[in-house]
Structures are given as structure tokens and as C-alpha cells.
UniProtKB/TrEMBL annotation:
A single BP term in Gene Ontology: small molecule biosynthetic process
Molecular functions per Gene Ontology: metal ion binding; oxidoreductase activity
Protein name per UniProt: Fe2OG dioxygenase domain-containing protein
InterPro entries in UniProt: DIOX_N, IPNS-like_FE2OG_OXY, IPNS-like_sf, Iron_ascorbate_oxido_reductase, Oxoglu/Fe-dep_dioxygenase_dom
UniProt keyword terms in alphabetical order: Iron, Metal-binding, Oxidoreductase
């Protein structure tokens, strides 16, 4: 049993888990055919995605098309942020300056302890939100409700940083929108099923720094066991390992770094929408590599005002939607608030 930050205990051998295969490795999916004109090639890709997402909940994406130089620049500027700024400079954009429902800004060391270990998670991070002005699809200005995108940038102390981080964010947006079409196909829906639902997505990018840890994984994690809130996550973990994924037997399977790849995983919103056909799998970071680790997780979700009901291909009279109907915005606000404050606000007893 694992305690998640919502206070819920995840049983490793739940009925759902028993009905799907266990895994001891993370599949690799080649996205060279992502933009192929060949419908058969795209269908095959969608099938691979379905198998990976319904069993492991994780896969490596290779040949995803995100340019290497954009990724390398974002990593380089992340290091300048973590090591070039003083703590006082970083604290000018402390996430604690924002309400608990907001996730942007700097997360100092000691501010996160996802799985209630003896020592807090050994990580510092910086998060940004979607901002339509940097969206490569150039959507028109959203209405007021959808345009509440506050970001805290270290503009005074590291003015160029924003440019490189937004450039990487834009590439992640492009790949995610393409991937969502395949996920729709994987679930038996038309590839454009989610097009309107990802016009102004809840797309957050985090850059994270995990120093090498001395304590055991029992006492401390880089980031404790959790599931991701959103629809899908893309993680670029550079070349230092530390990400671990929990299988049904309760074993932590290492997601070893695979050069040039992204680690992609199903988030709780997609698990909910698919009525548990896809698995949002528990994972954590433990940096026992002996060197500092940097990663860039990108959390892609549907529009804030999207109403989460079971997808038509995933519910039926005999298989009713098992979650309360909420908007994406309401759901994410609840998850962010309980995560940041440590208080569990009763919404329902599931994640
Ligand atoms: O750093 C990583 O590899 C993954 C981080 C993660 O799981 C998260 O930020 O949700
Ligand atoms: Fe995660």
C-alpha cells in the first residue's frame, strides 16, 4: 500500500491492477511515423500507445521531433537558474507568494514531501503555466476565464531564461497535441476528438534539480511516490537516472535514461476520462547516481472548462463512469491545493 498526497492509499493488487498485465520494463515507442500520411502506420502507433498506457501507464518516446538544440538550451538555462541565482533571488518568485491553488514559481528545497518521508524531498524546482502568447498554434486571445495565466519569471536577474524555457514549452505543446490525436485513436475515437479541448490547455512545465542523495530511499526521495494530475506528462530526464515506476507487485522499476527520449506517462485526468482503461501509474524519483540530476517534466491537460465525463468509447450502461463529473479546472485546483497545503480537502476519495 502506498499513501498518495491526497491521503488515499493505493493498493498494489486492486481489482483493476489484477485485470491487467504486470510489467518489469518500460516499452519504447518510435514516433518517426507521427506525421505519416499512411493511416495504417498511424493506427499501428495508436495500438502501441494503447498497449503501453493500459498496462504500464508509461513509455519512452523516441524520434518525437523536439529539436535537440531547444532541449539543450533549456537544460543549460535551467542550470543557470539553479546555480547562478542566489537563494534570495529565487525567493523573489517563491510559489508561496501565490494562492495554494497555483503551481507557478520557485519551489525551494524543503517545500515538498510527497510521500511523508522522514526527510523532505531533495529537490528544488521552477514551474510555469501555459500562456497563449507563446503558443506555436497562435490561438486568438482567450476569454477572461481562460486567460488567467500568471507566471513568475526571474526577469530582473536572468532575463534570457524565459526565452529558452518558453521555446522548450512550445515544442512540448506541439508534440503533445500530436500525441493526443493518437491517444484519441487508441481509445477508439476520431483523431480530432480532443481538438477543441486542447485549444488553451493546462500545460505546465517544470524544471527540477535533484542533488545526489546520501539518505536511503526509505528516509528520503528526490520526489516522493505520486501520480500526475493531468492528461499526459512528458519528462525529459537528461542523462542521469532516478525515475522509478511502481509495478503491480510493488517493485520499483527504473526508467533508465535513454538518450534523446522523452518518458511519457498517463495522468489522472486521462485515467478518469478512460474510466480506468488507461493506468495513471505511481512513480517517484530517487537520485542515487552520485551526481546532480536535472529533469524537465511537462504536464499537458485539457482546457480548464472541459467537463470531465467518461469518454463515449469508455463508458456504457454496464460500465458507468466511476468518478464525479467536474471541470478540469476544478479538479486541478483541488489537486494542487491539497498537494501544496498538505490539507486534504474532501472532493471525493479517489485521485
Ligand atoms: O524528474 C522526473 O524524472 C519526474 C518528475 C515527476 O514525476 C514529476 O515532477 O511529476
Ligand atoms: Fe510525476
Amino acid at each position: 500500500m502506498f499513501r498518495l498526497e491526497t491521503g488515499r492509499y493505493v493498493e498494489i493488487c486492486s481489482d483493476h491492477a489484477q485485470s491487467i498485465e504486470d510489467f518489469d520494463s518500460i516499452p519504447i515507442i518510435d514516433f518517426s511515423e507521427l506525421l505519416s500520411e499512411d493511416a495504417n502506420a498511424r493506427r499501428k502507433l495508436a495500438e502501441k500507445i494503447y498497449v503501453a498506457c493500459s498496462t504500464v501507464g508509461f513509455f519512452y518516446a523516441v524520434n518525437h521531433g523536439i529539436p535537440q538544440d531547444v532541449t539543450a538550451n533549456a537544460f543549460e538555462w535551467s542550470k543557470k537558474f539553479f546555480h547562478g541565482l542566489t537563494t534570495a533571488q529565487k525567493m523573489k518568485i517563491d510559489t508561496a507568494l501565490l494562492p495554494d491553488s497555483q503551481y507557478q514559481g520557485y519551489f525551494p528545497f524543503g517545500s515538498v514531501n510527497k510521500s511523508q518521508k522522514k526527510l523532505s524531498d531533495l529537490m528544488e524546482a521552477f514551474n510555469i503555466n501555459y500562456d497563449y502568447r507563446y503558443d506555436p498554434d497562435k490561438p486568438s486571445k482567450p476569454d477572461a476565464k481562460q486567460s488567467n495565466f500568471i507566471n513568475l519569471w526571474p526577469d530582473e536577474d536572468l532575463p534570457e531564461f524565459k526565452l529558452h524555457i518558453e521555446a522548450y514549452h512550445a515544442e512540448c505543446l506541439k508534440f503533445s497535441r500530436r500525441l493526443v490525436k493518437l491517444i484519441a485513436m487508441a481509445l477508439g475515437l476520431s483523431p480530432d476528438y480532443f481538438d477543441d479541448a486542447i485549444r488553451y490547455p493546462t500545460a505546465g512545465l517544470r524544471i527540477a534539480h535533484y542533488p545526489k542523495q546520501e539518505a536511503s530511499a526509505n528516509d528520503q526521495n528526490g520526489l516522493g511516490a505520486h501520480t500526475d494530475f493531468d492528461f499526459i506528462t512528458l519528462v525529459n530526464q537528461g542523462n542521469v537516472g532516478g525515475l522509478q515506476v511502481l509495478n503491480k507487485k510493488g517493485q520499483w522499476i527504473k526508467a533508465q535514461p535513454l538518450t534523446g527520449s522523452l518518458v511519457v506517462n498517463v495522468g489522472d485526468c486521462l485515467m478518469r476520462l478512460s474510466n480506468n482503461r488507461l493506468s495513471s501509474t505511481v512513480h517517484r524519483v530517487v537520485n542515487e547516481s552520485g551526481q546532480a540530476r536535472y529533469s524537465m517534466p511537462f504536464f499537458f491537460g485539457l482546457n480548464q472548462n472541459y467537463v470531465m465525463e467518461g469518454l463515449p468509447s469508455c463508458v456504457s450502461d454496464d460500465n458507468k463512469y466511476m468518478y464525479p463529473v467536474t471541470t478540469v479546472g476544478e479538479y486541478l485546483e483541488w489537486r494542487s491545493r491539497s498537494s501544496k497545503s498538505g490539507n486534504i480537502h474532501e472532493f471525493d476519495n479517489k485521485r
